[in-house]
From TrEMBL:
Catalytic activity: RNA(n+1) + phosphate = RNA(n) + a ribonucleoside 5'-diphosphate
Functional note: Involved in mRNA degradation. Catalyzes the phosphorolysis of single-stranded polyribonucleotides processively in the 3'- to 5'-direction.
Keyword field: Cytoplasm, Magnesium, Metal-binding, Nucleotidyltransferase, RNA-binding, Transferase
Source organism (scientific name): Flavihumibacter stibioxidans
Annotated NCBIfam families: polynuc_phos, PRK11824.1
Places the protein is found: Cytoplasm
PANTHER family named in the record: POLYRIBONUCLEOTIDE NUCLEOTIDYLTRANSFERASE, POLYRIBONUCLEOTIDE NUCLEOTIDYLTRANSFERASE 1, MITOCHONDRIAL
UniProt gene name: pnp
Domain S1 motif: residue ranges: 636-705
The protein's name in its UniProt record: Polyribonucleotide nucleotidyltransferase
SMART domains xref list: KH (SM00322), S1 (SM00316)
Length: 724
């Protein structure tokens, strides 16, 4: 007989209920749950190997979040019509889960763990990313996989001044703060999101509100675990330890490592010195263990000695920073590395900047495109177009390494997303006609290249003539804590990122925060320490902004001469068909004659026309053409008209694109004419005045003679009936 499912429910506000259920689906996994809110259902499974792989030295956790298109009643748009590799949104959601869960596993747990989170039913109003980590943690909670405690994540958004937990998709569109917070019952673990220049105190308040909501979700997981009857966690094989060897390594290397750490060496010099000490250690251990000349240490001793030496570096450097208040490169705790920046350094891109901070360097370019270049961003529930794109590249030479060049990994996607969300806050609104692509190529890396991307991106966007009102900069911060002592580090190095207890990146303008990405690796971090860290980050951000404004005080007033020209005009809805013409004849003729690309669509009950070209005069010609088609002729105005055909009773002339009228023979000249032969011919351009419209037919009445000098002694002209 099939076992009966077990479930618990809790409220998330505004009458919305979330239900976690186990025991019905995927019962062969170590842990499996579904999480449901409305019609949104997420299936999460957790499976762990019983034994680590031979020689395993790190924790192999794999987290994949995927959305099934069937969950929204859709068929994938790819050629193969099936879900394939994770898209960027799925990768980013996977990272949100991974970053929050990873610190929960014991440091000596080295078995493979795979967590798969799948959207199996979609609700257009429910954002699944806010529920995905809850599902993953619940799957672990109902298993015997040895995590320390459950966690959860919630989205907190400020909408019209009020903080809302897990808002609906339609509500989120009105938010000026949007953050996802991950936490245990007691401690914050992860923060990521964006805002429209919020203050540090606003962010602290959002974190506190989110944490209260998370506590109820952790409580629900513990209830589900108890209902299932899971009371113990599995035993696992712990890595071999040799305390005698550890003591030998510490005795030999502590002072040597400390001397190198406080020497303020460059990254590669410091690495070379540490490597040399490691080789000396291995030779010294041979004498300690009486290894015969020409022989090697036992593999087990050699492996453990290497690990203990890496641990020694970790603890010695941490203690140096905490006790001596000095860092690996000799800086004080709150000092930003030397800055250098240039704009307009590449002749062909539409905007370019080089930003260097210490040993981290980003070369960033900006390309301007048409609405046809917009990026389609698809998830199961939505298909949206975006006209602001940022791509981040991290080639291996940036760290002096040799690696295979493959497509962007999860790290690249995550770092690019943080930079994109930050710069997006200062991009012009929907009326800005261009599609904009920013590409950051990291040329050197030793400490936050994503923050270098934000700074270089802001400079390059202004260099391209994009009307950004303010610069956006970013700084990466670190934290080291031990026995009540702590040190907050501004502009961390790569090594400091590895040995720190908190890694957080803050971006923003002089007025407020635009983006945050924070990972916390230590229990019991107080809000007072976090507040101090945020205020120190503010000072670092402002220091970098001052240098950016010295380099590029404001955006260029216009795009560069070689950049494409683009304008946008709004026309009445009724003229959309006239601009396009039958079968697209008119718009195709305009594009052919002017060498431009013209895009027209209906928005807000109006026609939005974008004109894109490489030469300003061509864009102006196309704009005048469209304005002519969409213009309303005004009685009394004078127009340049082209003669289209000659008739016995007058000439038909086009005085605006697509608008013709009869210039009667009696209105051509003050002199009475029997024929227009020798006076006008097809193709002639003449000035005419719109004198009125026929009240019955609506046809235009035009006159040329009223613009000509009136012969002396001639009375007022007798009006003649104008016939077709």
């Amino acid at each position: 007989m099939l076992s009966q499912p077990i479930n618990v429910s809790f409220e998330v506000g505004s009458g919305r209920t979330v239900t976690i259920e186990t025991g019905k689906l995927a019962r062969q996994a170590d842990g499996a749950v579904t999480v449901r809110q409305g019609n949104c259902i997420i299936l999460a499974t957790a499976v762990a190997n019983k034994e680590p792989k031979e020689g395993q030295s790190f924790f192999p956790l794999t987290v994949d979040y995927q959305e099934k298109f069937a969950s929204a009643g859709r068929i994938p748009g790819s050629f193969f019509k099936r879900e394939s590799k994770l898209n960027d949104y799925e990768v980013l959601t996977s990272r949100l889960i991974d970053r929050a869960l990873r610190p929960l596993f014991p440091e000596d747990y080295l078995c493979d763990v795979q967590i798969l989170v799948t959207l199996v039913s979609s609700d257009p109003e429910v954002m699944p990313d806010a529920l995905a980590c809850l599902a993953a943690s619940a799957a672990l909670a109902v298993s015997d996989i040895p995590i320390q405690e459950p966690i959860s994540e919630v989205r907190v958004a400020r909408i019209e001044g009020q903080f809302v937990i897990n808002p609906l998709r339609s509500e989120l569109a009105k938010a000026d703060m949007d953050f996802i917070i991950g936490a245990t019952e007691k401690n914050i673990m992860m923060v990521e999101g964006e805002s429209k220049e919020c203050s540090e105190e606003d962010l602290i308040k959002a974190i506190e509100i989110a944490h209260e909501a998370i506590k109820s979700q952790v409580k629900a997981q513990n209830e589900l675990r108890a209902l299932k009857g899971v009371t113990t966690k599995r035993e696992y094989a712990k890595p071999e330890q040799n305390e005698e060897l550890r003591a030998k390594v510490e005795a030999f290397g502590t002072d040597k490592v400390y001397q190198v750490a406080k020497s303020a060496l460059a990254k590669h010099d410091r690495s070379d010195r540490f490597e040399a000490i490691g080789k000396e250690l291995m030779e010294w251990l041979k004498t300690e263990y009486k290894v015969a000349e020409g022989e090697e240490l036992e593999p087990s001793i050699k492996k453990l000695a290497k690990k203990y030496y890496e641990d020694l570096q970790y603890y010695v450097v941490r203690d140096m920073i905490l006790n001596d208040r000095v860092r690996l490169d000799g800086r004080s705790l709150d000092q930003v590395r030397p800055l250098a920046m240039e704009v307009d350094i590449l002749p062909s891109p539409h905007g370019a900047a080089l930003f260097t901070r210490g040993e981290t360097q980003s070369l960033t370019t900006v390309t301007l495109g048409t609405p046809l270049d917009e990026l389609l961003v698809e998830s199961a529930a939505t298909s949206d177009y975006t006209k602001f794109i940022l791509h981040y590249n991290f080639p291996p030479f940036s760290t002096g390494e040799v690696k295979m060049m493959r497509g962007p990994g999860r790290r690249e996607v995550g770092h690019g997303n943080l930079a994109m969300r930050s710069l997006k806050q200062m991009m012009p609104g929907d009326n800005f006609p261009y599609t904009v692509r920013v590409v950051s190529d990291i040329l050197e890396s030793n400490g936050s290249s994503s923050m270098a991307t934000v700074c270089a991106g802001s400079l390059a966007l202004m260099d391209a003539g994009i009307p950004m009102p303010k610069h956006v900069s970013g700084v990466a911060m670190g934290l080291i804590t031990k026995e009540g002592k702590f040190a907050v580090l501004t502009d961390i190095l790569g090594d400091e990122d590895h040995l720190g207890d908190m890694d957080f990146k803050v971006t923003g303008t002089r007025e407020g925060i635009c983006g945050v990405q924070m990972d916390i690796k230590v229990d019991g971090l107080s809000m007072d320490i976090m507040r101090q860290a945020l205020m120190q980050a503010n000072r670092g951000r402002l220091h970098i902004l001052d240098a950016m404004y010295e380099t590029m005080p404001a955006a260029r007033e216009d795009v560069k001469p070689h950049a494409p020209r683009m304008v946008k005009i709004i026309i009445d809805k009724e003229f959309i068909g006239a601009v396009i013409g039958p079968g697209g004849k008119v718009i195709q003729e305009m594009q052919r004659e002017t060498g431009t690309t013209i895009n027209i669509e209906e928005k807000n009950n109006q026609g939005e026309v974008s004109i894109f070209g490489t030469k300003k005069e061509n864009v102006d010609k196309a704009m005048a053409w469209i304005k002519g088609i969409a213009a309303q002729p005004t009685v009394g105005d004078v127009y340049e008209a082209t003669v289209k055909s000659i008739q016995p009773y007058g000439a038909f002339v086009e005085f605006l694109p697509g608008k013709q009228g009869l210039l009667h023979i009696s209105e051509v000249s003050w002199k009475r004419l029997e024929t227009l032969e020798g006076v006008l011919k097809e193709g002639d351009v003449v000035k005419v005045k719109l004198t009125g419209t026929d009240p019955k037919s609506g046809k235009f009445k035009l006159s040329r003679k009223v613009l000509l000098p009136k012969p002396e002694g001639q009375g007022a002209p007798r009006q003649q009936e104008q016939n077709d």
